[in-house]
Write a structure and sequence with these properties.
GO terms for molecular function: calcium-dependent phospholipid binding; metal ion binding. It comes from Channa argus. Keywords: Calcium, Metal-binding, Repeat, Signal. The protein has 436 residues and is α+β, with helices and mostly antiparallel strands. The protein folds into 3 domains: 70 residues, no CATH class; 139 residues, C2 domain (Immunoglobulin-like, Sandwich), CATH 2.60.40.150; 169 residues, no CATH class. 20% of the residues lie in helices and 26% in strands. The strands form 7 sheets. Strands 3-2-5-23 form a 4-stranded mixed β-sheet, with no helix packed on it. A hairpin with a 2-residue loop joins strand 21 and strand 22. Helix 5 runs antiparallel to helix 6 and helix 5 packs across helix 9. It is elongated.
Length: 436
């Protein structure tokens, strides 16, 4: 609902939602409510449902302010269905059936919200149970029509339509009973054959709903993310006075390190209320005696390595470039030890980080398997926009660097039975900016 108060005159009020595109900064219309005639107090029915991406900055703009935003814990529906005596579609008298679920929209259209797996060579399939957010199924309207199409899978993609039926979240939530046995109807066959009854039946075997907390729930409950920076000051980066160096200080554009810091930092900083970020460098000789350090604070203060905001980190980084001498070797174990307070010896930065990145194979030590993937290795060069658009490059980088964090936090909390605290009135979502 989008209730709006005290509009200036009797008119035809409507709310239009815009999303700002990354890179071009262009505002594009995402959707609009229905028009309500002649009222200063419209109560809109149309809902806007957007996916929340922690790793992206999502700028939104409404032409009228909304006070009803409520993103809270969502319900997950788990269900299982089977079918009986479906129409034969294949040459050998069988079918390879699967189901496609559609949520109805306010304008009468339908949006796909789930596809089951294909069960091969049968007219009586039993599909595996699956889960789906209740919001995706009905958008908060329990009586909203849910349409289900039944298809026979074909290898070339030209799947044969067997039939369809309709239901609703409210019907499904009643569980297995006589009302949740659905006739699969094919309108074309029904129109051609007078004795046509149906193309089979689909039965709901089970249905349950569970509440599942989201990353947003923890953030709204006061969960904070700490952000620490470590910058490679080894000579392998090249001479900072040369354009080929990753540390090159160009008067016209940011270098690679500054771009990476700004891209990630501008998003992550909004999840830490004090915005004090410890920032270190490693692999450099420090003034005045040229001693090599692998964990020196960019602030220059050993007792206080914090920088204020990402701009403070960038300022300290630029100042360090002017005072330290790039050297080596590449050893970021001391920085990791400062942050994690554990031993970790890493010699080669790329190979070691890739080994720690457990996307494919979970890292292990002394026979003990890591509980979670603990590192996300992202080669910056892969995200450089060919047209030279730094904003787009930074957005791509931040998206992949940060994409795993929400699931990492949720898996940790769930494994320990930790639930989010009640939402704090002073902790709105950081990156869902509303512009009026």
């Amino acid at each position: 609902m989008l209730p709006i108060w005290r509009l200036p005159s009797l008119s035809l009020p409507v709310v239009v939602l815009y999303i700002q595109a990354v890179g071009t900064k262009e505002w594009r219309e995402f959707g609009r409510t229905e028009v309500i005639d002649n009222t200063r107090n419209p109560d809109f029915v149309r809902k806007f449902v957007l996916d929340f991406f922690f790793e992206e900055k999502q700028n939104l703009r409404y032409n009228v302010d909304s006070r009803s935003c409520n993103i809270s814990k969502h319900d997950i529906a788990t269900m299982q269905l089977c079918a009986n005596k479906l129409d034969k579609k294949d040459f050998f008298g069988k079918s390879d059936p699967f189901l496609v679920f559609y949520r109805s929209n306010e304008d009468g259209t339908f949006t796909i919200c789930h596809k089951t797996e294909v069960v091969k060579n049968t007219l009586n399939p039993v599909w595996q149970s699956f889960t789906i957010p209740v919001r995706a199924l009905c958008n908060g309207d329990y009586d909203r029509t849910v349409k289900v199409d039944v298809y026979d899978w074909d290898r070339d993609g030209s799947h044969d339509f067997i039939g369809e039926f309709t239901t609703s979240y409210r019907e499904l939530s009643r569980g297995q009973n006589q009302f949740n046995v659905y006739e699969v109807l094919n309108p074309k066959k029904k129109g051609k054959k007078k004795k046509y009854i149906n193309s089979g039946t689909v039965t709901l075997l089970s249905f349950k709903v569970e509440s599942e907390y989201t990353f947003v729930d923890f953030i709204r409950g006061g969960t904070q993310l700490n952000f620490t920076v470590a910058i490679d000051f080894t000579a392998s980066n090249g001479n900072p006075s040369q354009p080929t160096s990753l540390h090159y200080m160009s008067p016209y554009q940011m270098n690679a390190y500054a771009m990476a810091l700004k891209a990630v930092g501008e998003i992550i900083q909004d999840y830490d209320s004090d915005k004090l970020f410890p920032a270190y460098g490693f692999g450099a000789k420090l003034p005045p005696d040229g001693k090599i350090s692998h964990a020196f604070p960019l602030s220059g203060d050993n007792d206080n390595p914090n920088c204020v905001g990402i701009e403070g980190v960038l300022e300290a980084y630029f100042q360090s470039l002017r005072t330290v001498q790039l050297y080596g070797p590449t050893n970021f174990a001391p920085v990791i030890n400062k942050v994690a307070n554990r031993k970790c010896i890493l010699d080669n930065k790329h190979t070691a980080m890739e080994e720690l990145d457990g996307d494919e194979v979970r890292v292990s030590s002394r026979g003990r398997l890591a509980e979670r993937d603990i590192v996300q290795f992202v080669p910056f060069r892969d995200y450089i926009d060919r047209s030279g658009n730094q904003v787009l490059s930074m957005a791509r980088l931040a998206k992949d660097v940060l994409a795993e964090i929400p699931d990492q936090l949720l898996s940790f909390m769930k494994s320990r039975g930790i639930e989010p605290r009640p939402a704090l009135s002073s902790s709105p979502l950081p990156q869902l900016h509303r512009h009026i």
